[in-house]
Design brief:
Elements (H helix, E strand, L loop, with lengths): L16 H20 L3 E2 L5 E3 H4 L7 H4 L4 E3 L5 E4 L4 H10 L7 E10 L11 E10 L5 H16 L4 E7 H11 L6 H8 L2 H14 L5 H12 L10 H4 L3 H19 L6 E3 L13 E7 L9 E5 L3 H6 L7 E7 H11 L11 E5 L3 H13 L4 E3 L6 H10 L4 E5 L1 H6 L1 E6 L5 E5 L5
Helix pairs in contact: 1-5, 1-13, 5-11, 6-7, 6-11, 8-9
Length: 428
């Protein structure tokens, strides 16, 4: 018989208990922060109609190339969700009576058939927060503050880069990029840090953008003053989008300064967030030390999505942020700044021919709220104590026939070596 190939599908990964304990601690930490900020939980289906995920108000052409598609027995066109944003926009569109502003969080699996690198897989977990019904930049400021709080609790130093799509598309319009090429040009600018100025200009030329326009873009990309909002003031009178984007960023900056997180939040005029869904402020979160170059969180404003799905074309103020659980875990393991311990057991019980009595003690301790592991093998005591030490379990209980006869047992502290005698009946 031919042996089966048990390798994981490319881009997927198993997380054994030692890793999964850390991942779940990250997840719990994020969820606690989300709840602290008044967000309500939501769960959406992994499986969706392709038409929904391929909507022009969704992720855009680039992300659709990575979408997993399939058909069911009824020959309906379906797809696995590639993010949590569009399924959420669908919920908001289908439930117009939800009180606004509505703040929700969702943690779940998403799927993209894209490139694989450190912390980036094809099946991964996103942790999202979205706010519907808040026009002010206070919504963006709160989500950025939330990110600073969350990573502070995870003991990770991060930098949040931010920009505004109106600023970026407006400057491209002023430079002479035609309207039907704006989104493609933005996607190319989004590659700036990866491929450099020369390659960006070369790709823009392939869009049949005029040489004079390319020269203006190149000058913009290399100007030493472009990292200040004041750089764009001279263009604001020429383009309404630039004026709107500037006003929004000035409002946001005032909040960041008042919250005293402006040093962690840096304006990046080239940040594009390639997805076509974004309409205003955008941001990406990076490890300050650069130990992982991928962003570990991102988001922005997407006011067109809900109205677009409803078919009204109405702008519905919506802004969100997403944290990548897998890339955060990879960052924790890379930087070794892991204060999270894999040992979660309060008591480890080793029975020596006393299975029933040990099971009762374990049950009594669990009723008191303790986390208890009951050994079920017949390995020698020395090996089992080694296991306890290796896994960092502090309290070990050995129950033999003598302990049963005396109706008591000893609790050994594996760190200090101290032993305490407990009466079995005292646990009830």
């Amino acid at each position: 018989m031919k042996k089966m190939d048990y390798q994981n599908v490319k881009g997927t990964q198993d997380y054994l208990p030692e890793a999964e304990v850390i991942r779940r601690e990250v997840r719990r930490t994020l969820e606690d922060v989300f709840i602290q900020y008044g967000c309500k939980p939501l769960e959406t289906p992994i499986l969706n109609y392709t038409e929904l995920l391929a909507s022009k108000y969704a992720g855009g052409a680039e992300i659709l190339e990575e979408m997993y598609t399939l058909t069911d027995r009824g020959e309906r066109d379906l797809a696995l969700r590639y993010d949590l944003t569009i399924p959420f926009a669908k919920v908001a569109a289908m439930n117009p009576t939800i009180p606004m502003p509505f703040k929700r969080y969702e943690i779940g699996k998403v799927f993209r058939d894209g490139p694989i690198k450190a912390g980036r897989f094809r099946e991964f977990t996103q942790c999202d927060v979205d706010i519907v019904g808040a026009e002010s930049q206070v919504a963006e400021a709160e989500l950025m503050m939330m990110a600073v709080d969350a990573f502070g609790k995870l003991d990770m130093k991060v930098t949040i880069q931010y920009n505004n799509r109106k600023l970026l598309t407006g400057i491209l319009e002023v430079f002479g990029v035609e309207e039907d090429r704006i989104n493609q040009a933005v996607l190319i600018l989004d590659k700036l840090e990866k491929i450099g100025v020369d390659s960006v200009i070369s790709e823009l030329s392939d869009l049949s953008i005029a040489d004079s326009t390319n020269q203006l873009i190149q000058q913009f990309l290399t100007d030493s003053d472009n990292n200040r909002l004041g750089y764009f003031e001279s263009y604001a009178d020429q383009n309404d989008q630039i004026r709107e984007g500037l006003d929004e960023l000035k409002e946001l900056t005032s909040y960041l300064e008042f919250l005293e997180i402006n040093e962690q939040c840096v304006f990046n005029p080239f940040l594009a967030r390639g997805l076509e869904i974004y309409t205003g402020t955008i941001y990406e979160i990076f490890l300050t030390d650069g130990s992982i170059t991928s962003s570990i969180g991102s988001g922005g404003r997407y006011d067109n999505a809900i109205g677009g799905l409803l078919g009204t074309g109405e702008n519905v103020s919506t802004v969100g942020i997403s944290f990548g659980l897998d890339v955060i875990y990879a960052a924790i393991m890379t930087t070794k700044q892991n204060g999270m311990k894999s040992a979660t057991v309060d008591y480890y019980i080793i029975p020596l021919g006393t299975g029933k009595e040990a099971l009762r003690v374990a049950n009594d301790l669990r009723k008191k709220g303790y986390i208890v592991e009951l050994e079920m093998s017949s390995r020698k005591l020395g090996k089992l104590l080694e296991k306890a030490n290796k896994e960092g379990v502090r309290n070990v209980i050995v129950i033999g026939e003598e302990e049963v006869r005396k109706n008591q047992f000893k609790v050994k502290d594996m760190v200090t070596g101290e032993e305490k005698v407990w009466e079995m009946n005292a646990l009830k």
